[in-house]
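Notebook, p. 212. Picked up where the previous page left off. The plan for this session was modest: take the two constructs that came back from the sequencing core last week, fold each one, and keep the raw output in the notebook itself so nobody has to go hunting through shared drives later. Recording the first one now, exactly as returned: residue sequence, then the structure token string.
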Amino acid sequence: MNPSTSRSYTSIVLANVFSTFNVVLAVFGVLTFAFGDAEDALFVGILITNAGLGILQEARAKRALDRLAALVAPSATVIRDGTARRLPLSEVVVGDLVRLEAGDRISADGRLRAAERLVIDESVLTGESQPVVTSAGHALHSGAFVLEGAGILEVTAVGPDSYAERVTGEARRFRHPLSPLERDMNRLLLLLVSVMLPLGAILGYSLWQRRPSLSDAVTIAVAAIVPLVPEGLVLLTRLTYAIGALRMARRGVLAQQLSAIESLASTDVICVDKTGTLTERALHVTETIPAPGVAREALERACGRYAASARSRNTTLVAVATAWPAAAEPPTAEIPFSSHRRWSALRLGAEGFVLGAPELFPLGTLAEIADQRMRAGRRVLAIGTTSLGVDMLGDTLPSSGLTVLGLIVLAERLRPDTREMVRQFSDAGVTLKVISGDAPETVAAIAADAGIPCEAGALDGRTLPADLGALRTLALGASVIGRASPDDKRRLVESLRDAGLHVTMVGDGVNDVPALKAAHLAIAPGTGTEMAKAVADLVLIRGDFAAVPALLAEGRQALRNLQRVSKLFVTKSVFAAFVILTVGITPHAYPFLSRHLTLAAALTIGIPAFFLALAPSAGAWRHPGFLRDIARFSIPAGTAAGLAVVSSFLFARDVLRLPLLEARSVSVTTLVLVGLYLVLVLEGNGRQWRRAWIVLLCLALFGIYVVVLALPFTRELFDVVPPTPIMALSALGAASLALAGLSLSSDRFMLRVQRRGHCAEGAPCSSEDLYGPDA
């Protein structure tokens, strides 16, 4: 299989074990075991558990992806001992003879031993779309494609030494920079590291001035610095991607990049061809329209001969051959179809035939008929004869010497689920743009039938402006573009990107590769060309584009949950920084031991994050403002938690004169109360069912804390004592005052009561919905 399909097991283990924060926590764990109490190193167990879960989940996703990748793995027809057999590319060795036929991807470097009118498309290698006619002795590089003819290639290089491996590797490195969410996460982690370093230095200087024992210094440092580390945030992000890839795999979608789930969820615009996405891939002939003076039988006989004899077959020729079966004749000359030329030619005996777009032919009275059929959503082709030699024809079809025989009208059927798919994209706020090589009128009719609005009319790719600003304006306003060349598709995608939109491109051919590479997210069907699948982020193994709306919804759900849960981890870091700056640098005892924070973080962040990250959710997902949204929640929430804990601890120590053990128990209780409230306000303002299970979860977590306080073993393990009434009142009072101030500072921290329960899922509730008609 392609080695770039999924990460290796080694890279999965290294990424989950040797992250920056894991190294920091491991160092503090070693210091704790060496100089402190082993119970204060409980966070090391969580660290190991997190790494193990991450490795298991990503390995599970890898196995699912590898199974799908095997279904679309490249293969080659190898001749060994005079017998041709189809083998996986990995089994091709130097010296093998590989048979090349139309449509094949050249899978290894080599030299042609034989060639029969072999025409190669090297556009992916050279950027030139003009086919190359080859002969025996010609050197070929892997990665090119066979357009027509046949040949025998003697393999000279395979695997890492072949051109395909180098090109694919370079293309993928170029194609896949960090996703926006990954970049934001990296910025967030870099910010937290930049905060940790000066805070650690300040704390270290304070401890040096106070001269505590080494054991006490390590205990304080671990209790202060470890909570700054959002140890679950990196794991949560990686698991979100892995679970998203696994869900895609279950729908028959191969995610070749784990961040594809985010790119899909962020999509604003999807550019598609109509064939195979909006319509079924198969075509069928609906009618033939002979030119004046041409018998219908003569027209249909010419169509059948052409379709049966052409070496380069496509869906159009398959439909024509099905309508008029004929015996194949060996052509004496052939020019295969190209999306740049939009025509093909064939010489059969003494006759030269040309088949292509009707506007390239002198149609005369047939022009109006062709236009009517295209406006009705039909695909129209013209066929004629040429008195010029087929070998003499260039890229431009000359009208001189061209005699029109008639028109072939083909129809495409909408896929049964197309209208529902379009509606789902519309409901999700995603714009569909149809970019096709067919006539604009044909594309517009199909788009309208599918429910895609086209108020601005269909654009003609041949008239697109060269000016980037003008092209951007047209691309933003148009939903249908016909007669688009490969370069037109690329320019349209780039103009939408430049407008600030997140663009997904769906394509299956070599000619779609430039646009696929220009898009934020590239999708190719499993039946697409090898190169299209090689550069795609998502491969639809079953070719079912209708699976994409459901994947988009699942991806947005996962990222909404990731964004919400990330606030809890960052809140913990803000809280830890606040405590360091208010108590850690003073002669006061520190309000916590490391084991206290391990307990509180597990109940208010770790366990809730596990459930909330996988829970159903509704609402929009918008990447812009991701960090700002986290900061608006985490900074005031972390500050409030810090105020509550510090005030309760100082009150217990300096006013109530409680021993350090009791005062720290008050701090832990206060932190648990504040943390569970933050979980409630973060997740409990949705619909009735969602609020109910969040409340039950928080009650269960508080019940676990009560059990910890009640059992002698857990009390000793976590070094806490059951609260007396005055301790409980101190904790509850400090938490209530801090949370009251927090609620007054912003409505987002206020628990709402949805009395009527009728606001729509994902929509903002009005004040009447939330508080009743008297609000």
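Okay, moving on. Second construct, recorded in the same format:
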Amino acid sequence: MIAVPLRGRADGRSPSPAEMMSRLGVTSGREEHQLSSLPFVLDDATCGTENELQAVVSGSREKIDLPRIIEESNYFQNIIKRRRRGEVPKRVLSDLEGWLAGNRDNTWENSWVRFPRRRLSVLGDKVLERDLLADKACPESDRRGDADQFLLREEGEDCLRIPVSYLLKLALADAMGVQDRAPAWLKEAGLKLAGHFLSDNTSPETYSLHVVPLRMESGQGRAVADESAQRFLLSQLLVQYAGTRFGLTESGQRVLVYMAPHPPIRQKELNDCITDSFYRELFMNPCLSGWDKGEEKHRYMHLCHQVMSRAQLNSLARLKEAGIINSNLVVMPSTSNISLANNGVHISLGSRKLTEALADPASGFTAGHEKYLGDLVIKTVEHFLPLFVGTYSAAPYRLDFADFHPEKVLSFLPYQLDYTHLRMIWRRWKKKADLKIKGLGLRLTPFGPPWLDSALSRAFALRGDFVPDFRLIDYLVALMSTDQSPALDGREGNQQRLKKDLAELGVFDPSMSTYLPYRQREFSKMGFSGFEGRYYSLFAGLRRDLAPAAELQCLVTALACRLIAAGRLTHGHIPDSPETESERRQIFFGAAIGLPTFFVKADTGNLFLRLILEKTGGVRASRRYPGYLRVGHPEFRAALFDYICREAADLIEAMGLERTVQDLRWRLERPEHRSVHERLTRGVLSEMGVKDPLKAQARDFNLAAESYYRETLRRQHMEEAWDVLEEDLSGREFLYSLSNAGFREAAEHTLDGRNGLEYVQSLRGLVLREEASEEDMLRLINLVILTVKARERRAEELTSQNGRYEGEDETGDSPVRRAALR
């Protein structure tokens, strides 16, 4: 292979990188001056996160909304009547009845809750009425057309029936309303934070309570992790408060919210028993919170589910065209796809320089420049995504022998990879999995009939596979471009053109958002300019894993900008053909599956990839695929790491990320001890009393993982969040904020003469055991709000021109900043 230097070359689509960057204010003088003027470097980057949480309601079948709503539904009653008339097979009814009766631990994922409306405070009821409007921006509008499903009469009184996602918001509003003597400042702050609890897709979603500046003075990624911890703790307190205040606990409804990446096993099994329409009725969120026109958003979620389900069925034809399915013997996928019930974390970075330039017409930096730069940054960063998968976040999952039908296990990959890479991945995956009959050397895949596949699995000890991050395989992560409409060629409107092409092919709907693992956040739509990382599944720890992940994401984004500014990277270096796009993304998906190798054309037109492969150890010509190189995943990750250390050495020093890079080195060198994939797996296995996931049945392991996330990991995340709360109450941000009259009055009202730190320490055990009183819950909710506002105030001062920490002089300079620029 020949080394290919990356130097700018004209492509006729934009000004030269130097001219574009000069409009952005990037200097071309001394190296340290250029570093300080780059986007996402030093004090430029801001960060926010969005978390999708899993919700469950535990209790007997007679007490919980989900089984009740199924049994009371016309759908269920019609099945019973049709079965009596002999119009449907016995299995249609028995499977659903078996699902209802077979819940041994009485855990009902994504169930709604019911409670008397009289339990709401006046303010809580006012918030409810506003959220029931057809258009919240128009107070005179009528109620939503579906309001009746939230309001019902039970045992002679008015009751509410709402999803857990909305319960969180309503509980926070109620907590502010029930405190008659609470200062107006506190109530206003609490109601503002209530808007950060969203109803979307299936699971509860929360997004950052304030934007975090990625600065050394504020703790960089640690500050991002701490904000996530605050939000997680507030969610736990609200659930416990609702359990007491709304009478959920006494009525037999125990609500939990926690971080878990996969759609629940039992929800998948229910999906196989019912129609797609009934599934949407049960699980598509009504979007009561977060959207002015909730019904409109609810219809959009129905559309997303319909499109995903249709794509799943259409993938059969694509697999046949790819030569992966060679006969008409297939397992028909369900007409309902459950992938929208997965849960991940999105980390968004914003650039003050990009945002300010786009807000100022005099800068000459336009939306066209933003698009050119953004698409090129995305293509570059995608090469580094294998460093994140399994390393910082993961979704370990056990697949049984019977799961290895390509039409099931390959999921959405036929829409994300070209046929060549799809065939390569399928062949290598079958080789990795335990599908071979010992002694005969014959590798089998399942035939279809469950009884036959089960018999084969038992007879020949065919165990299937164990995957590091199955969420990234079982979900539509990235839409592949068409030949006529590349998604990332730097031209405005390219993604709209791609969606139109895909709609004509029956793959997508133009009204849906473009799916990408790293997505541009455009100024005209978001009010800021930056990028959103959508490839994170589950973090084992917030400070230990989320914090360095956010820092590494910022570093590789800044590195991409630096290469572009230096004229060393243009769109011409990373071509926009579907084959080139698929070539780099297959590495990402292979890492999620846990494949040991991948294959790249020896003469690939992706010059950036060729440059990295030039420094990758162990690369050799493939014997199976002439003209291709065989590359090991561990060696490629090591080459990516070396490239970062070599090309971003000054960025690492300037941004103070030496420890982050060293931590990455340790994770790559000792994945069995430091990677999130291995740590989560050990946690699940320790509770099962098993040492190897392949020695457990797939369903048993996956159910054990759900239990581990629901109980053990949830408590660990709570402990970590509690540590953050204790640190905040004795930190300088909190003490500094007491100089504000409104803040001080709210703190005095909350603590009523108590020592805040000692009070919180005394309640840790009670909260972890879910035994704290309603009064203590209210005080703790207030304290979290106060610590959030304290951090928010300091963050705003840091990002303002006059915001300085102690030690900064009037120019904003400080010893820390000077050391970073040396």
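Notes on construct two before I forget. Confidence is low (pLDDT under 50) at residues 1-10, 801-822.
Flagging for discussion at group meeting.
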